[in-house]
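Deviations from the work plan: none for this task. Representative record:
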Amino acid sequence: NAGVTQTPKFQVLKTGQSMTLQCAQDMNHNSMYWYRQDPGMGLRLIYYSASEGTTDKGEVPNGYNVSRLNKREFSLRLESAAPSQTSVYFCASRYTSGSTDTQYFGPGTRLTVL
Amino acid sequence: GDSVTQMEGPVTLSEEAFLTINCTYTATGYPSLFWYVQYPGEGLQLLLKATKADDKGSNKGFEATYRKETTSFHLEKGSVQVSDSAVYFCALWGQAGTALIFGKGTTLSVSS
């Protein structure tokens, strides 16, 4: 199993450009998440998808859109990038069974907006 | 709302020193508690967890005990190694159970 994979690993954008961050998991998990990580801020939830076909806003959704394409894939789109969106973005999926409830994270995408 | 507070870093230790990273939480009910570790340039990995009061999670020499009375989940290790240098995050499932709520992270640097 590859676990949670993210592409690209690094990206530099100019203000106003758009891009889509891709995430896929091969663990058959229902729930998937997008977080951003900023220095001194920990991880903050952008959007999540509890199951295929559903998405919900998290703590910091402004400037982002998401698509849960199927059970495996959950993409994050920046329609018009701003310097404030310079961050490291992590995708995660969630495994729940009985008393086990754990999130698994991808390696991250480092995005710089100039 | 639910929240997690971690001690500010960075924490700088010599190899074989004792480590404590404090974590306290505010939550409705008794959520599962987690410690995640992030090594340089990598994503987050689950280090240990505890699902109910008085549970002790342990992994790779690290331990943390779920203390309901003090709403704490402090991370400890008796003898740190250089390879333990990383950022450590305390986390819990939010009230709605929809996503993890993280502390701001504590950077640990261990020198030989």
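DSSP finds no helices and eleven strands in chain A.
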